[in-house]
Specification:
The protein is an alpha/beta fold. It is built from 12 helices and 13 strands.
Length: about 400
């Protein structure tokens, strides 16, 4: 498919585009029609037939699990379907066999979900080492300077939620290889990149990954994934266990604690069926548009749009936060405008249907592949008026 066809097909799937210039996919994405249809179908079936449709839904969930695995180059046995990124990170934080005096290393500009679970280990004698970040650019050398013989895990975001700085796959490979050489595991918070940028966890040898589907994957809140390399399955102590965690999950009268030999052991009890079905529909939409472990025409369009938006913002005097290197760009652009009240500007944007975020004293836009120049002009015109 050509770029114009991809943009058109995706825009036709986004009812929000009819009224809003939506630039907030790094926060919570609006749903495409296919996700809404999947949720509506579940609602009608659940309302009119109760659990008679449960086998159909369960079969669909396993298809979604396989699609999620395909997205990142994993096997279905390595994927647990989770309610959010925090859950996956906590599986590692709380399940890892820590010893007193050990530490984990992460960056200072991480989203709280990738800080609090590690800081919560302090009472057990596990320290969190936070590496300073300047100008939104995370440096690999400083990351490893903070490591020592007691470091057991590095946890980092693929894409920074604030600056938009994206580690390239080559950098991720470098980080993982050096960490493994030192006997350190690597946890990747992938929520700000997954669903648009190519990623192959098997090739990169990433140990753990967590992401929610409600941002770039255009899914509903409360549905995401957790990846664990098959060889690490017995490394983490199972948490939040329930009937779904065991090998004989549907034999309710046979109580036998034998955890599943799949990552689904971490799913515990009843799943968020409706959220997962909606998430699965959005995931298939993106995969049908060409998103894979090696290429992504969706990401190509987002990056082209990001570069154009940054250029046009600079022409108006905006100061862009973070790296200007094309290879590190993502769908996130944070910026300030001298002598402009950004909180007030954001409020004015929201009043006229231009949706963006105000983070860390900066405005943040995060467009998707369906956004067009008309959407951007709505924002630029408001900025022009604010600086007169």
């Amino acid at each position: 498919m050509t770029e114009s066809v991809i943009k058109q097909q995706l825009r036709e799937q986004m009812p929000v585009a009819k009224t809003l210039a939506y630039f907030d996919h790094a926060a919570v994405a609006p749903l495409p029609s296919v996700a809404a249809q999947a949720i509506t179908s579940w609602l009608e079936e659940a309302t009119n037939q109760g659990d008679l449709y449960w086998p159909k839904w369960a079969k669909r969930v396993e298809i979604i699990r396989r699609n999620a695995a395909k997205l990142i180059g994993a096997s279905a046995e390595e994927i647990a379907l989770t309610p959010n990124t925090s859950t996956g990170i906590n599986f590692v934080a709380e399940g890892f066999p820590w010893k007193e005096g050990e530490n984990i290393v992460t960056f200072a500009n991480e989203f709280p979900s990738n800080l609090y679970p590690w800081m919560n280990l302090h009472s057990r004698g596990v320290n969190t080492r936070v590496v300073p970040v300047e100008q939104g650019i995370a440096e690999i050398n400083r990351l490893f300077e903070a490591c020592d013989e007691q470091t057991r895990l590095i946890s980092l975001s693929w894409v920074s939620f604030s600056s938009g700085y994206r580690f390239t796959n080559e950098q991720l490979h470098e980080i993982v290889q050096e960490a493994h050489r030192r006997g350190i595991y690597v946890m990747l918070d992938a929520i700000q990149g997954l669903g648009i940028f190519p990623l192959d966890v098997a090739e990169l040898e990433i140990d753990f990954l967590a992401a929610d589907g409600h941002k770039w994957m255009l899914g509903p809140e409360g549905a995401g994934l957790f990846y664990i390399r098959q060889q690490h399955l017995d490394l983490l102590r199972p948490l939040m266990v329930g009937w779904h965690s065991v090998a004989n999950a549907f034999d309710f009268s046979n109580i036998d604690w034998k955890p599943r030999r799949q990552a689904s052991r971490y799913e515990g009890g009843t799943q968020n069926m409706v959220g997962t079905l909606g998430y699965g529909a959005s995931l298939e939409l993106l995969q049908n548009l060409g998103v894979s472990t090696t290429v992504s025409p969706v990401a190509d369009q987002i990056l082209a749009y990001t570069q154009s938006a940054r250029s046009q913002l600079k022409e108006l005097g905006a100061e862009i936060h973070g790296s200007s290197d094309v290879e590190h760009l993502s769908g996130i652009t944070s910026f300030t405008i001298p002598n402009v009240d950004l909180a007030q500007l954001r409020s004015e944007c929201m009043n006229i249907g231009v949706v963006l975020s105000h983070r860390d004293g900066r405005l943040r836009i995060s467009p998707h592949a369906y956004n067009n120049q008309e959407d951007l002009e709505r924002l630029l015109n408001l900025i022009r008026n604010s600086i007169k």
